[in-house]
Design a protein that fits this description.
By secondary structure, the chain is mainly alpha-helical. The protein has one domain. It is built from nine helices and four strands. Strands 1-2 form a two-stranded antiparallel ribbon. Strands 3-4 form a two-stranded antiparallel ribbon. Helix 1 packs antiparallel against helix 2, helix 7 packs antiparallel against helix 8 (209-225) and helix 8 (209-225) runs antiparallel to helix 9. The termini are far apart.
């Protein structure tokens, strides 16, 4: 598509990097607009943002190292040459969860009133898919995370050798799997924003419903979009399922467990669920 956005002063600005950074900014901006709804002051919000962005970056890069360990073991310098382009969503997501928990425990150790995990996490269930929409558009521009060949009329042909598409798949119509996922993420974000969050604020649904709802919905979306991928998916446990499909199965099980165990609707409208 359009991997290079522009060049300035001898430096190449990649479309992927700009859109990915814009995705982080969009998600943070949405959380900033609602920081008072999450029960946070502005300084508390910014500390939380630094924590989860740092956790996301570290987690995503660690996941890339794990799924591509074969290339790294064969050529230790391979990782350094590809450090800008390797990101694994699910490990980055786990990184955000861990860093947010560290923030919560650190805050609760020194300040009062105590912070709860799930009320802000419900808003994260909107900001993450919103930001991920732009991230997937960046993938589409770069040609990474591309689809497999298709004869469907909406197949997209990549011709730029500098794109992330395998050389043997250039000039062939491919599934625009990046757009499939972007559309699904946008639908999830709008549904949670317009339907779930208002009911949580009204006390009809428990805290965590939007958060675990997002995990479940994205797990289903990612599992099926992976079927249309044509790039190297790495290896984990089985050649039949990609690492991301294994992660998605785990995410779906976790989401179903918490939603079933704690319920979705409040038993008593005046008493809010405060678990986590």
């Amino acid at each position: 598509m359009h991997p290079t956005l522009f060049e300035i002063g001898g430096h190449t600005i990649m479309t992927y990097g700009v859109l990915t950074a814009s995705g982080y900014l969009l998600g943070a901006l949405w959380m900033w607009v609602h920081h008072e709804d999450m029960g946070m002051s502005l300084w508390q919000f910014f500390i939380l943002m630094y924590c989860i962005v740092g956790g996301a970056v570290l987690g995503a890069k660690a996941g890339f190292f794990l799924v591509e360990w074969r290339d790294f073991s064969a050529d230790p310098m391979w990782y350094l040459r590809n450090w800008r382009h390797g990101w694994v969503f699910w490990s980055g997501f786990i990184g955000t969860l861990v860093s947010a928990k560290v923030y919560q425990e650190g805050f609760n150790a020194f300040f009062a009133p105590k912070k709860r995990y799930l009320p802000p996490a419900d808003y994260f269930g909107v900001s993450l898919p919103l930001g991920h929409v732009l991230g997937r558009l960046g993938c589409f521009a770069q040609g990474c995370c591309h689809g497999r060949p298709t004869e469907l009329p909406w197949g997209v042909t990549f011709t730029d050798p500098s794109s992330g598409v395998k050389p043997e798949l250039l000039n062939l119509p491919l599934h625009p799997v990046q757009l499939y996922e972007a559309a699904g993420e946008l639908a999830i974000a709008v549904w949670i924003m317009r339907w779930l969050l208002p009911r949580i604020r009204e006390g009809k649904f428990r805290y965590g419903t939007a958060f675990f709802g997002y995990i479940g919905l994205y797990s289903v979306l990612r599992f099926f979009t992976e079927m249309f991928r044509g790039d190297d998916r790495g290896f984990f446990l089985s050649a039949w399922l990609s690492p991301s499909q294994w992660w998605s199965l785990g995410g779906l099980v976790i989401a179903a467990y918490f939603l079933r165990r704690h319920g979705i609707k409040e038993s008593f409208p005046t008493k809010r669920s405060l678990y986590f």
